[in-house]
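Subject: two folds for Thursday's group meeting

Dear M.,

Sorry for the delay on this. The cluster queue was jammed most of the week, so I only got both jobs back this morning. I'm pasting them in the order they finished. Each block is the input sequence followed by the predicted structure tokens. Could you check whether the formatting survives your parser before we put anything on slides? The first protein is the one we discussed after the seminar.
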Amino acid sequence: MKMTTEEAFVKTLQMHGIEHAFGIIGSAFMPISDIFPDAGITFWDCAHEGSGGMMADGYTRATGKMSMMIAQNGPGIANFVTAVKTAYWNHSPLLLVTPQAANKTLGQGGFQEIEQMNMFADCVAYQEEVRDASRVAEVLNRVILNAKRASAPAQINMPRDFWTQVIDIDLPQIVEFERPGGGETALNEAAEMLSNAKFPVILNGAGVVLGGAIDTSIALAERLDAPVCVGYQHNDAFPGSHPLFAGPLGYNGSKAGMELISKADVVLALGTRLNPFSTLPGYGIDYWPKDAKIIQVDINPDRIGLTKKVSVGIIGDAKKVATSIMAKLTDDAGDAGREERKALIAKTKSAWAQELTSMDHEQDDPGTTWNERARGAKPDWLSPRKAWRAIQSALPKEAIISSDIGNNCAIGNAYPSFEAGRKYLAPGLFGPCGYGLPSVVGAKIGCPDVPVVGFSGDGAFGIAVTELTAIGREEWPAITQIVFRNYQWGAEKRNSTLWYDDNFVGTELDEQVSYAGIATACGLKGVVARTQDELTDALAQAIKDQMENGVTTLIEAMINQELGEPFRRDAMKAPVAVAGISKDDMRPQQV
């Protein structure tokens, strides 16, 4: 069949059901964007490509459906790098379309030219460049399939002078692969270990959510009466109301989960690469069980045994593997110490719930006094933990939330729980600031009937604040955003208090700026909350306005300057002066 290259490109997108594209318009891809409306593809023109990429990530994580990011070649595409690497570590199957400078002038250092394949080589699971105009559909189909198979972004690089060519082409077929379910020997070994375990613990990761394995993990946990922990920022990988749910491990996670997994003799790490933030000590507890047998299940063999020693590695889909293991358990699996274990789980969870409820303030390390001074300086301001408790009072159970990177958001890691997967969006292990707002916008586009709330500290929010100029337009859905306002880069300030004697370099923010005021100036609703009751009421009203009135609300929650735990105690140490540094050694530049 004869068609243009842009028709072939868009028809291939349609074959795969890709309905949403995020980015900023550019001449390098106008031949396809021109026919997006006729194809049923919506182009969401954001304020910055980096935020557009995070919208795509939020859409895909909330829905499980692929979306696309696209922008002008060169600087437009370069702005996607952070978002694409974020999606890579979030295991989001995204299509990255990078229009390239024309072949005719490539290499001459022309307008908006850069090596786009090299730029994304470490950010995607697969990449391919179109070498001939007649191969555009073939290449695009292969890129999309590889994104799905790897559950990660994949890139197609398209020289812009290949558009508007008439080609004779057969559209490619979609060949789907069935996910592996683990090797028989490994499954038998895992089942035997769990059958003989006296204190089995299950650790659910992102693969449980992505593979639709939550129900299967519930059945397995109930069969063994095993407590279930979840990895860092994967609070939605097990129902929060379930009596076996022990909470998130890692940074600012659940002490209950940490205490219970420390007692394990067998750990089933299901759908997780055991990333460092899910296994590092927390609250001073080095909880990872040193002598336990570890069964690690991951779809990617490269991740098995990478961060922790494992007894059995299983390459496979979390749902299939969990189902197979359960079928192979002995009749008396889980019976050893069952009643004592159930009682201990309940007791440990209750103690942690009471402790968490009573935690009003952040503690100072010995020899430091910042948090004490922060409370004294603003005695009437909300503390981060009081703010999170206020939020929990108004947050609907069915809501999708998105957290940002930063101190106040991290303090909240122990608070939210969910009854279903694809509800908790977070920046993940690449840790980009500015994720909270755009990702929750993408989630709302994909789930218009579900309330969504984004969370950001004021430092991180400053990176995404430009999106307030875009999302107020009529075609954009209403969302709710909370900004924790304490006028500082909190995570780095905590590092400064612990290792640099309160030498605060680059940590202070402008106190004259009002994010609620900026929201109002952009035609949105801006609200300031100063007390727990005000924050709870503001969030309840914002959710109502979002769902019933189509109104986007930004709530600026005024927080005192208390600082929670540093992100990485293991990565920092006190500086030592050897040669010494003096201003007197500064030499004037010669101009």
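Second protein, same layout:
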Amino acid sequence: MRRTLGLTVAVGVVAAGLAAGGGQAMAERGSVVRGTYSAGAAHAWQPLPTTYVGNDGPAGTTIVVDPSAARQRYTGVGFSLDETSVSNLWKLTPEQRDRAVRLLVDPKTGAGFDRFRLTIGSPDLIEHLPFWSYDEPPAGIAEDRDLKYFSIKRDVDLHIVDTVKLIQKYNPRATFFASAWSAPAWMKTNNRFTGEVALQPGSTTSYYQVGKLRDDCIDVFAKYYAKYLQAYAKYGIDVDALTLLNEPGIDVVYPAMDISVAQQQKLAVAIKREVRRAGLRTQLYVHDFNFWDWRDPNSTATKNYHRIFDDPKTRAAADALAFHPYWGDPTVMRDAYEEFGKPVEMTETSDLNPETILDYFRLDASSYVMWAQTTDQDGGTLHWTPARDNNVDWAEVGRTTKWPNRLVTVNTSTKTFSVRDELYAMGQFAKYLGPEHTRVESSGTANGISNVVFKDAGDNFVAIVGNANATPSTVRITLAGRSFAVTVPAGAYATYRWHGQVPHRSHAPRFQDVQPVIADQYRTTQFQLRATDRDGDRLAYYATDLPAGVTLDAVTGLVTVHPTVSGEQNLKFRVTDGAAHDDVTVLVTTRPHGAPAGERIEAESYVAQHGWTEGGANFIESNPAASGGKNVGWTAAGNWLQYRVDVAQGTYNLELRVANGSGAPAPDAISIRDASGAVLSKVTVPDTGGWAGYQSISTRIPLPAGDQPLTVYCETGGFNLDYLQLSS
């Protein structure tokens, strides 16, 4: 057992309180609690019954809010203003375009999106070729070190600037940051703006980016960034942050550039110097790449770009860390935030699941910015390609590569638009949060109820609560000894706002020691947390993140463990009085047993596997739509996962929870095999409409009695596995 004492007190924090006995109504009436919810377009930003702090009652789930544990400041939710998206918006009539932008960004009548990504020169997502930088010297001029030919005329002509101004009209608090995919061609070693790839020595499948930033152009590239900021400022557009470079070193043939760790260090310092010389306060975000590429000790392939902070000057120049979610474990955001004390920004994602926004905020992300979210009814014209072909036919790429069903679809025939239902749930965050808000810790997901909580300096709280259940759920929100109960509609995201009252005491609560716990897999064990407080304050117990099968009673401190995974786990708990907190870590050792019928077996709870790299980015994936938040991905023919089951002899129904975003079913993709390797059954994985669009498929299998292995064998790949479950 390890114990740490937390005494950090958030300035001016408050909350609602925990009623005596956990469910009795309190006599003293507190501040008013106002709420709205969204459950698709039919129930968009609808008001909930007004209640008040102290109006408590029975609840299936308790959310503990801890203002003594302040985390990151909110920066925004929004999307990219890539040229493809902008081009589609400008195919609408002026009236429809205004209506679309207002629905997206207006905090009063729309979703209130408030954070937007600009591109410095062209990215891959453009409708109109050719790709461009802002400094294209005329024929016969090899380079332009004085940037005499610098121009953002393409941004003006393609309505990117106009779109920013329209966003500013409907949301004056909107903010903008910008990323370059590459330096101009003449600043690179291969004199090519688009990417150029080559095979790694000795490999037939692994590539590297040929085009590198010239060492003698680091300073001029930094001046190029400053000139971009000044050019946009002339249009009344404050670009408040730059990223160092979009996905540095990525091995693609659309615009990209390699930049070594040493060059990143020099460029970061140079950018900050040139920005200050220009009289600007623009921030600098470093990395701007996947979780995997920042730090992953299990990989020999990862770039481990955290090494740029080995240089103190680079660390001082960096204002934040930017991440993309396509590879790796999102918990690296929290690790980076705590290690380096820098804000974390999610600058590019294609995940429209509002639960991902909630989860990433809980992992200390300050923002959530989506990539390329406006295409037409056919999926748009864009120039992204996975091909590693330096002579790719870009016109053919634009003709054939389509990204349908983005957040916004523009019908170019009718000149109208439609939006996906996720927009309204996203608005439950963006409409009610602003730069004045700081996240505070709160208890983790339980009983299908998730949450994230923010406060401002005036002790006004905003709690966004998700209900993944198919029925309405009663929820108690407790803060500093006071609470209120609400009912969250089924399948909805609800936002509650109230003024809290945080005590300021001289003594923190203290945990009593907890001995290590021995448990058995798929069996129930309980242990008791106990804490004292010299001020006599009412205490609440919580945990920010508990594995599947572990629950905690916020009032009594009773922990119930029904582990689904064997081995050792360190479970972290916290107790708070609202003004201060204490932490305790309990070691739980779980002895392995086979899963009986009726128990859900998480895909990641395998006892053996073949075909994946342990700890690899393309194996166990974080996926908020999955049971337990994780799935096994990147399946391929010949891969297999082995599990243990303990059943009586008989024929059982086997449920497999799968997702397939390939666009086509995978016939006989999975075989189920017994201890001898014999095939018991084969099942087809249907097209589920997305890699997070889970569906259940079932088959019947005969099993002998006893504790035995059961193998899920990939006859083909192309699906994600969430869990499996036997039933009689």
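Two things I noticed about the second structure. Residues 455 and 587 are 33 Å apart (CA to CA). The radius of gyration is 27 Å.

Cheers,
T.
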